[in-house]
Design a protein that fits this description.
The complex is a heterodimer of chains A (382) and B (181). In chain A, helix 1 runs parallel beside helix 6, helix 3 packs parallel to helix 4 and helix 11 packs across helix 12. Chain A has 2 domains: 178 residues, 3-Layer(aba) Sandwich (Rossmann fold); 109 residues, Rossmann fold (3-Layer(aba) Sandwich). In chain A, strand 7, helix 6 and strand 8 form a beta-alpha-beta unit. Helices cover 38% and strands 20% of the residues of chain A. Chain A has 382 residues and is an alpha/beta fold. In chain A, strands 2, 3, 4, 5, 6, 7, 8 and 13 form an 8-stranded mixed β-sheet that branches. In chain A, strands 10-12-11-14-15 form a 5-stranded mixed β-sheet, sandwiched between helices. A two-stranded antiparallel sheet of chain A has the order 1-9. The termini of chain A are far apart. Chain B is an alpha/beta fold and 181 residues long. Chain B has one domain: Pyruvate-ferredoxin Oxidoreductase, domain 3 (3-Layer(aba) Sandwich). A 6-stranded mixed β-sheet of chain B has the order 2-3-1-4-5-6, sandwiched between helices. The chains are: A alpha/beta (382), B alpha/beta (181).
Amino acid sequence: MKDNVVFVQGNEAIVEAALYAGLNFFAGYPITPSTEIAELLSLRLPQKGGKFIQMEDELSSMCAIIGASLTGKKSMTATSGPGFSLKQEAIGFAVMTETPSVIVNVQRGGPSTGLPTSGSQGDVMQAKWGTHGEHAIITMTASNNQDAFAVTVDAFNLSETFRTPVILLFDEVVAHTRERLVIPKPDEIKVIQRLKTSVKEGTDYHPYLPREDGRLPMSDFGGVHRYNVTGLAHDMWGFPTTDSTTVYNLMHHLVDKIQGHTKEIARTKEYYLDDAECLLISYGSSARTALHVTEDRRLRGEKIGLLELQTLWPFPAEEVKKKCLNASCVIVVEMNMGQILHEVKKAIDDPEKVFLANQINGSFIKPSDVLNIIRIIQGRGA
Amino acid sequence: MEKCRIIFSGSGGQGIITSAIILAEAATLHESLNAVQSQAYGPEARGGSSRSDVIISDKEIRYPKVIEPNILVCLTQAAYNEFASLIRPGGILLTDKFFVKHEKKVDARLVELDMHREVLKEIGRPIVFNICMLGAFIAITKLVKESSIMKVLEKRIPHGFLDMNKNALELGITMAPDLEL
């Protein structure tokens, strides 16, 4: 057995990945089914010189990681269900102030306290629109430990590259399933460090003046430069403004820096797509069920394939459109009432060929839940 | 090998989940097999029925839960009543004589062992009941080797308790009948 092969839960894979990506500040308030992330980091983070704080609630946890990030620390929080709702206002502050931060939401059944110990994918739209106001945000997910590791490192990288909060939208099944994880060697996955300003001490630094390429170099808050950070619409100095041209440019910058890089941010995985007549689209733990069905039906000679989405926001509409082109039917497999279904329908020219296979009763979606829909579409009854 | 789907069931506190993790970890790290393990749990911390699913295969495992177990272990009457009907016809049902009375006609090979009483008699500590069960389990199913389980126990169990666990594992192995698989 090699030392870098471990048998762990998804939550532990996320912790290993965050440490790999250079996490050095975590603030959180433990909540099922994300608790192991906080539990494990309370041990591991101080061992490598990082800071772990259990805050009084989720609101302060989110605020704490924004503050820590501004001072130059790679920061993360983890939560679930009601905790994700509580973080929304501060997530908006991170969007507006362009503060790199990673927010793990291990989805459980909702609304409200709902089903604390059951899996769900009911927060897909909340990840995008949970905080108020026009904005763009990055949201990623994965279906197994190895991928959860990879997208978590990715989340930190994207968060630094685009100066944005990134939501890691996992679910109870991925978080609590134990399986093999091979921890990559250092440098095996690229880790992006923060882009810092080259402006010298004593020279004016404009925290919100984008470079030619749209990126905003940062200066550790409380360090050599004095600047303002506010949730109000602001100018290049970070001071509040209502000037229409400045606000117009700010709003476009906030949305364009993410929507304009959809291709670069999009992560997908493909299984048997080449000749697929029936195309499943899924993400997170549901994609495991979808892949099980795909491999099972392939053995019987059916032309079925799976497109697994790892980036949910910005939604990779162009890619989805391309992959759906030759399919006679598309089935979105998810544990909600069709939150990604509607995105797929919007993305393609013939939305009437898109169907939903879902489960919302707290049980993990079964292969038979998908097979029943396939049978109905084929006119063979459930 | 065929994909093997296993459910360990009993009541909270019997070490059901721990034994499932040990089995799956042994298969993954020391046998070059794939294994996934998960557990169903409710908001309660103790009592109630406890269930852990393990799948072991030499291929990639996609769907991580067990619907029809090939092997079902029931260590309480409540767990037996709840899960016995799930078993795949022709599968193996392992129960403890002290805790479970067979009331159903299940199409499975029944293995009824007096593990709880033997553990109390031979070792005197009920805490290793689950490890005794695991010993019987690996001897019956031949899914993983004893040495692989021992490697996991050496890593997970505090040094002072290792001998007691080893004895419990061996006790279970000696109790197991030799089934034609």
